[in-house]
Amino acid sequence: MARKQGSHSDITGPRVQDTALRLIARHGYAAVSMRQIAAEVGVQAGALYNYTPDKQSLLFDLMRAHMQDVLDALAAADLQGDPPARLDGFTRFHIRFHLPRSDQVFVSYMELRNLAPENFAILESMRREYETALENILRDGVAAGIFAVPDTRIATMAIIAMLTGLSHWYREGGRLGMDAIEEIYCNLVQKSVRR
Predict the structure, then answer these.
(1) Quick check: 19 and 39 in contact, CB under 8 A?
(2) pLDDT digits (tens, 9 = 90+) for 164-177
(3) Which end of the chain, N or C, is more open, meaning fewer C-beta atoms within 10 Å of its C-beta?
(4) Under CATH, what is the fold of the domain 1-52?
């Protein structure tokens, strides 16, 4: 059978990833079939296996790529200053990085339960690395007597959950612009940890 037009691996591979991400974000991992992904991409179902061994690998690759992008961008952000300045920097980084990637954020948080144990362990390690960056800021602030946080791990998880939640409800063109919302979130985060 002749190859379909536009099915070159450098074009079709990313289309498979983008389509799978969009469908999983909209319908959930369990409800999306490989046949459905193939139909959306415009290839035969069997052709998907040229790009991924199975649906589990596809989900894992999507989630791992997102977490690697987060970690790489955080490393490049180079948060400097005292703990409050670094906390503001982390808050702004998290919002700016995650907000335009609502599908990736949704899949990365809501589909963890569908990962095979070995894949979950890898993602959990990557997430822990990201969380540790924030926890270190909080610990430094506590050590400096600036922050009053009884448990830095719990505070880390609470702050990340609050920041990530923004991508679930924020819509461009709403009552407040992104800059105003970012300021509000920085203020909320600072007040939640300050003495």
Answers:
(1) no
(2) 999 888 888 889 88
(3) N
(4) Arc Repressor Mutant, subunit A (1.10.10)
